[in-house]
Structure formats: structure tokens, C-alpha cells
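Schema walk-through. Below, the input block comes first and the output block second. Nothing else is stored per chain. Lengths vary across the set, and this one has 329 residues.
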Amino acid sequence: MTPPVITFFNNKGGVGKTTLVYHVAWMLADRGYRVVAADLDPQANLTAAFLDDDDVEQLWNSAEPRSIWSAIRPFVDGEGLIGALTPTPTSDERLALLPGDLSLSRFEDDLSDQWRQCLDGTRLRPFLVMSAFWTVLQSAAQRHRADVVLVDVGPSLGAINRAALVASDHVVVPVAPDLFSLQGLRNLGPTLRAWREGWRKRLGELREGDRPMPAGSMAPLGYVILGHATRLDRPVKAYHRWIARIPVDFHGAVLGETAPPPEPDPYCLAQLKHYHSLLPLAQQARKPVFALKPADGAFGGHARAAQRAYEDFRGLAIAILNASKASAA
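--- output ---
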């Protein structure tokens, strides 16, 4: 049985998506699960969260496949097959990284072209290109003996993210309580459904059916509300107004439902605070906020906040796993 691939996706940037993937990955590893964290964002922010600049430079300049793009590039260029990519280890042997690469943006045009060519159904190559991410993710998960794969993508509705979602079993949507994030939610829902239906249609056209292909389920598991710190220009009343609208827009735009959402909403996986005071310490220590110790500068209130963060992310990690099991049942 292959591990579930869970992608964190919202086409609105700045909602804390990469930070969320990073912390959920560490929390699942802390809970005993074997995790692959995959960076499919051409900006490679998740990679930068795990590795320092020297490590990233060495990885990108390696003659061996070390990043997702370096594993895919020979196949895309017609010079060979998709390379086997061993995930990069972290300080916890249960957690490994599939590093991103800024050069991944070069894949965008090819993915757009191959998506159209899949409709022909007579050639296998367009399908192999569209499933390249899935091939790399599955191979890496097998090498790491992973229980789950978490994927970070950029805030885009472009071809790279479409291929990433084709490779995904489930989707978690991070949202912020503001108008722009809600608009991103309204854009994301119809796009997810169009991609899912489009991939199923293409698989139905494929005449060489003996090759394994991703199902492209991209089933929405739910949303995570990432709250803002209090601001003088954001009254509490307005903040709660946006909070109240998130379930309505998620059920309508993402799930395609017309009935009012239930209360409490089972698709609300968590509502998390912003840990602004802890993030600089965590980034310097290269660890999640909930793992900060006095040696990292987490004293007094910071130490208590780190403990609360542990409980928050533990609850979220459990909710994501339970939702993925229920969705797959």
C-alpha cells in the first residue's frame, strides 16, 4: 500500500503554507511516523527552511540527482529516464526532505503542452511527463519507507501546481481570515474540480493502460485557519466576520455544496495562532517552534508559547491523519 500524498495548497500567498508543512512534518515525525516532505514550489522556501545556504548550494551543484528537478530533467530533456531520488536526511531519521530547485520553473511550459497532448491518448509520453512528480514522490517514499508524504507548492494555479495536484491523494487548504484569502479559496475550489475531472478524462483516453498512473484524487481534507496577530487597523469584530465566512466559502467553492455548513464544521482541521515571537528563534535554530528549548533562547513566555504550540500542532497532525484515513475509506 502506497503512503498518502497530502498537498498543502492555496493560490493566495502569504497564508503561512510553507511554515505549516514544515511544522506538520516535524510533528508527525515526533509522533513516530516516517515522513517525506517534498518541495514542489519553484521558490524552494521549504528547502530553505530545512537547509542552510551552503547545503542548498552543494545540493544544486551535485552531479547526482539531489533535487526534484535534477531527477526529472534528463527525462524532460529526452536524455534518459526519471532518476531515482533518495530523500535528503534531517536530524530526525524519520523525516526526510525532497529538495526543491529554482530551475523547476523551466518545467512549466512543458507541463502545459503535455496536458493538452494527453487528450490525444495515443502517446504515452505526455502522461509520463504529467505524472513525473508522482513518479519521484512514490520512489522517494518507497526508499524512505514513508508513512505519509507532505507536499508544499507555490501560490499559483499554473501547470506545475496542476501536475503536483495530479500526484496528490489529498489537499489541505491553509486560509487566513481576510478578504484576499477567501477570494483565493473561491478560485481554488473550481480549479481543483476542473483539474480532477480533466485528469480523469485524460486517463480515459489513454490506450496504453498497463503503466501505473496517479489517480489524481486531490480530495479536500479540510482547511486550517492561520490567525493574524492583533492589529490596530483590524478590529476584533472584522476578524470574526472573516472567520465566520470561511466555512461557507470552503463548502461552497471547494466542496461544491449548496447547503449551509454544519456547526462545528468537521472540515476545520485547526485554528492556529501566529507565533511571531518564536519564528525568528526557530529559524535560527532550524527547528519547529514547538521544539525550542532554553538553549535556543526560549525562556519564560517563549517557553510557555512553545509548549502551547506543541499541543496545537499535535492536534492538527492527528486531525490530518484521521481525515486522510476517512477520505481513503
